[in-house]
Every structure is written in C-alpha cells, then in structure tokens.
Specification:
Rossmann fold, 8 helices, single chain, binds iron/sulfur cluster, about 35% helix
C-alpha cells in the first residue's frame, strides 16, 4: 500500500538507494560536493585586462597552457555572465571606479583573483600619483598571485587555489543563498586626486583640521 507519504521500496533497492528530499540534502551538506564540483570546473572569467600582466593571462588561455583543462576557457565579455574577475595589471585611480562597477554587476557567487604585484599591492608603481596600492582596498580578493608578471603556470596555480576555496564552501554557510541577508553592492569610488568623493569634501576637511 502506498500513499503520498509512504513509498514501498524493495529491500534490494533499499540497500542501493538513499531516499531523501531536497531540504534534507541541503541541511545535511550532501549537495555541497556535487554542486562545488560543477562550479569549480566551469568558472567563467571576465574578458578583462589592465596592463602587462594581461599578456600572460592571454597566454594562459591559449593552447600551450590551455585554461580549458580547468573548465575556465569560456571568457565572457559581460560581467553579467562572469563569475571570476582576474585583475591583471596596474590599477590606476582612473580605472578603479570601473573595476568596482564591473564587480558589482557580476552575479553571486563571484571570485576575484589579484594577478601580479600591481593588482596585489601597487607593484613597482606603489605610491605613484595615479596608482592605487592594491585592488583589495576596493573589492574583496580571493587569491593573490605574486610576480611581475606572474607566469602562466603561476596563474594556473592561483586557479587551483581558487578551486580549493570553492571545494570548502557550503550552501548552508555562504551569504549568496541567504535571502534574509542580501549582499549589498560595494560603493563605487569617485575619480579624484585621492579617490575620494568630492561630496564628502567638507567632512574630510573638518576631520583633517581636527
Ligand atoms: S605586476 Fe609587473 S607585469 Fe604585471 S602589470 Fe605590474 S608592472 Fe606589469
């Protein structure tokens, strides 16, 4: 006899098949492994380069190093279709607002790779009049890759570190799935002498005097 709640399962099948429902799968973290496996092997990077490091990123995507082995060959020309932003090169003050704007336009879950000395901390241009000392002052970074420029092998190693991070994530813990606590867009800096918002000038002057 069966009704809506009771399903007869032959003994032989019972030994082979686990019967459960979606809520229990999620609660028990049983979905994390296949879900993360799919995500780690199909990350779509944004087609976006800033300076000399971008040349190495392009080389990584070409046949010799072959990012396709990591499922990452589908570079998207739109932030709406991308889930990885590789900041590959010098981050100028003029470019920061556009980078933050692009980051905000990417759907969750999304990841940022700071490729090279410039993106990670300003590199040889640190403290320069038009360069910021690392993109992590404006957007969260998941993986930093050292080098000036990093080799394609180093970038691939960074991708593997990102895959390890994805492996450790859980649907139950990450904020992307929490409807009660939505993630706000990051403030877009306003281009100016010190990347400050001119509308805050009175407050900044007051604080400087204090
Ligand atoms: S880290 Fe070196 S290679 Fe990369 S963008 Fe900066 S100066 Fe160029």
């Amino acid at each position: 006899m069966t009704d809506e709640k009771t399903i007869e399962v032959p003994d032989e099948m019972r030994a082979q098949v686990a019967l459960t429902n979606m809520a229990d799968l999620v609660k028990g973290n049983l979905l994390d492994k296949p879900y993360n496996w799919g995500r780690r092997n199909s990350i779509w990077p944004m087609m976006f380069g800033l300076a000399c490091c971008a040349i190495e990123m392009i080389a990584t995507a070409a046949s010799r190093y072959d990012m396709a082995r990591f499922g990452m060959e589908v570079m998207r020309p739109s932030p709406r279709q991308s889930d990885m932003l590789i900041v590959s090169g010098t981050v100028t003050k003029k470019m920061v607002p556009q980078i933050v704007r692009l980051y905000n336009q990417m759907p969750e879950p999304k990841y940022v790779v700071a490729m090279g000395a410039c993106a990670s901390g300003g590199g040889p241009f640190k403290e320069g009049y038009n360069v910021v000392a690392g993109i992590d002052k404006y957007i969260p970074v998941d993986v930093y890759i050292s080098g000036c420029p990093p080799t394609p092998q180093a970038l691939l190693n960074g991708f593997m570190k990102l895959q390890e991070k994805i492996d450790s994530q859980s649907i139950n813990r990450e904020r992307w799935y929490d409807k009660e606590d939505p993630i706000e867009a990051l403030p877009v800096p306003v281009l100016g002498p010190d990347i400050m918002d001119p509308r805050d000038y009175a407050m900044i002057t007051k604080q400087a005097k204090a």
